[in-house]
Amino acid sequence: MTDATIDRPTFEALQQTAGAEFVGELVDTFLAEAPLMLQDLRSALAAGDADRFRRAAHSLKSNSNTFGALTLGALAKNLELTGIAPAAAANGATLDALDAEYSRVASALMELSRG
Amino acid sequence: MADTGSHGSRLLVVDDNKVNRLLLTRSLELQGHRVATAENGRIALDMLRKEPFDLVLLDMEMPEMDGFQVLEQIFDDRALRGLPVIVTSSLEGVESVVRCIELGAEDYLPKPVNPVLLKARISASLEKKRLQDQLKEMVRRFATPEVAQDLQTSGFALGGKRVYASVMFSDIRGFTPLVESQPPEETIDLLNTYYTLMFDAISSHGGVVNQMIGDGLMAIFGAPLPLPDHEACTVRAALEMIELVNMFNAERAAAGKPEIRIGIGVASGEMVAGYAGTSKRATYTCIGDTVNLAARLETHTKVAGRAILIDGATRNKLPERVGIEPLGLVEIKGKSAPVDVYSVNLGQGI
User: Fold this and answer.
1) Given B142, B169, B201, which residue is the final one in a domain?
2) Residue-level pLDDT at A21
């Protein structure tokens, strides 16, 4: 399961260059920040704030790729590129998928950084 | 870890995202650099204007002030322009990358940043900056700061432009007999001290020494960079020069050496200022009637028996006329009509 959610070589390279202990702290920071980005996406969408929506998607994409969460990163990149233009229903579905993928990423990362 | 490295450079990481800031800081500190962070462009610019940095790692997508605006402001700020900026971002689309480079970014590193690539790019940028700083230092040493600044901003081009400025000529009286009466080493020593004193007085009032010939010098106030109240600045510089020479003389007298006297001529008006010479060797200078007049007034100090002579254009712009004594119309070589000449008397200030 873990392998599909987090790209192991990316994560291990990160641990190697930055140090496993530091990456543990970095994961904690990400787990604290990412839910805020997900929230930000929904409230920016509700408010029709295209800039904020794009920035939140951009940040989430950037951080996901740092840890090797490539699927989450791809979903976020898609949101960054399409913006709030698509119909609300379509965006809602994408955000639900994003939330679900994030939950998988979060537990995989916790497991990996503890190990 | 910050501020403890005796070597390494001081870098600023600008990113609105906490994970990115932490990770970049970590990578850079592991490479031996000292790192400060800013979470948006506005904070970053405040920091850059307050403290010196060697390099900036800049994210593009940020609230309040984004990376593009930061790049623009760095480019528009004379003091910051040479600062290398490496953009680290995960912007989509090649046109964004092109825009960063066009705005003056040194390099572009996509996120997640590869640590090996990061290290190589930073070393290359820092090395380039070191060379540029060395070059700037050379220009600074051999040109005046104003000319160096002018060269840096507008580049080098022969040819002049019209400016309104003040010109000063100064010369040591009876220098030739003095030179003949003492060993050459002593003359060089005397000139070095004399020039140091004169340069201090002139530059502290905003002037630029642009020529030194033997014991004489020419200084410009108001070019290449504009200087408000350049007439008063020139006269204040002249008064300070006389004062410094008097102090220098007291020292010389104590050592049993003869005193030196200087004469100063000042004129203000329009002149042509610019680089004259060849494309290989040129100096910043000013030419025109005003310049000739200043030179003639300096010569006339001997005849008039005064230390500082100024023309009417300079005198009319002085905030106070205390200590300014009209000497009436004087025939000046090269001028068809006689010119109003004023003496600036010492110890009264202006």
Assistant:
1) B142
2) 94
Strands (E), chain B: 10-14, 34-38, 55-58, 85-89, 107-110, 159-173, 207-213, 216-221, 261-277, 282-287, 308-311, 324-330, 339-344
What is B12-40 written as a DSSP string? EEE-S-HHHHHHHHHHHHHTT-EEEEESS
- pTM of the model as a whole: 0.58
- From CA B326, how far away is CA B343, in angstroms rounded? 6
Q: Do A55 and B111 touch (CB under 8 A)?
A: no
Q: Are B296 and B321 in contact (CB under 8 A)?
A: no
**What's the CA gap between B132 and B142, in Å, rounded?**
15
pLDDT band for B1, please (50, 70, 90 cuts). very low
CB contact (8 A) between residue A62 and residue B111: yes
Question: A12, A17, A60, A61: which to substitute to probe chain B, counting the most B Cβ within 10 Å?
Answer: A17
Q: pLDDT by residue (tens digit) across B193-202?
A: 898 899 989 9
Instruction: Kindly tell me if the per-residue pLDDT of B2 is higher than 50.
Output: no
Query: End of a domain among B142, B176, B209?
Result: B142
Distance between CA B26 and CA A22 in Å, rounded?
Answer: 8
B160/B270 same-domain check: yes
Report d(CA B25, CA B11) in Å as an integer: 9
Query: Is the peptide bond between B112 and the residue preceding it cis, with omega within 30 degrees of 0?
Result: yes
- What is the ipTM metric for this complex? 0.89
The answer to whether the beta carbons of residues B350 and B314 sit under 8 Å apart is no
Q: Which CATH class is domain A2-114?
A: mainly alpha
Confidence (pLDDT) at B163? 86
For B23, the closest of A55, A66, A77 (CB atoms) is A66
The share of chain A scoring above pLDDT 70, in percent, equals 94
Asked if B20 reaches chain A (Cβ–Cβ under 8 Å), the answer is yes
Do B86 and B24 share a structural domain? yes
Give the CA distances from residue B264 to residues B165, B240, B300, B302, B345, in Å, rounded to whole numbers and listed in that order.
16, 11, 9, 10, 12
